[in-house]
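Support case: user asked for a sample of complex input and structure output to validate their parser. Sending the pair below.
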Amino acid sequence: GENVEQHPSTLSVQEGDSAVIKCTYSDSASNYFPWYKQELGKGPQLIIDIRSNVGEKKDQRIAVTLNKTAKHFSLHITETQPEDSAVYFCAASYGNNRLAFGKGNQVVVIP
Amino acid sequence: DGGITQSPKYLFRKEGQNVTLSCEQNLNHDAMYWYRQDPGQGLRLIYYSQIVNDFQKGDIAEGYSVSREKKESFPLTVTSAQKNPTAFYLCASRPGQMNTEAFFGQGTRLTVV
């Protein structure tokens, strides 16, 4: 199966600074990489995703980069705001339409 | 509004009892999934179903059972054989096509008392 590793486990940033979360995956056949944001006591929500035919995708303050050769992808949040504080999960597709998730990253934006 | 609904939000169970968690979606999605979330463990796949009347075990299926009699519904039963059932349970659905977004419910927090 697929193994997704996510680093760092906790990240604190000053409001207005950038945050970067990195993930690695093991299955070279994976070709879909979504990022989810989870607020306390709620279900995860998709914030951005990328497919293997592109190397970068941007949506306002959020961007994702993908390096298929190295099997890693990263989430970039610019101009962080307090409402960006949450747990972020990366995931990679594998097998029979499944997603393997990383262990999550707690992002704390300090006002 | 289309979405995926889990109920109840909080559930308490006595040791030795089976309990069923509900998951309903009106997104017309073919695939449905159950995940378990523990602190620091991320999301681990319990069972998934790609189509009505068919389902497969995920990575941690022991002590759990599911059914998929209707496209809209994918209930999860936590049996007394599950040794450590206290956790946050998440249901998700996706269209049948590959590489599409998974939509999650709001979760059910199960506590064994």
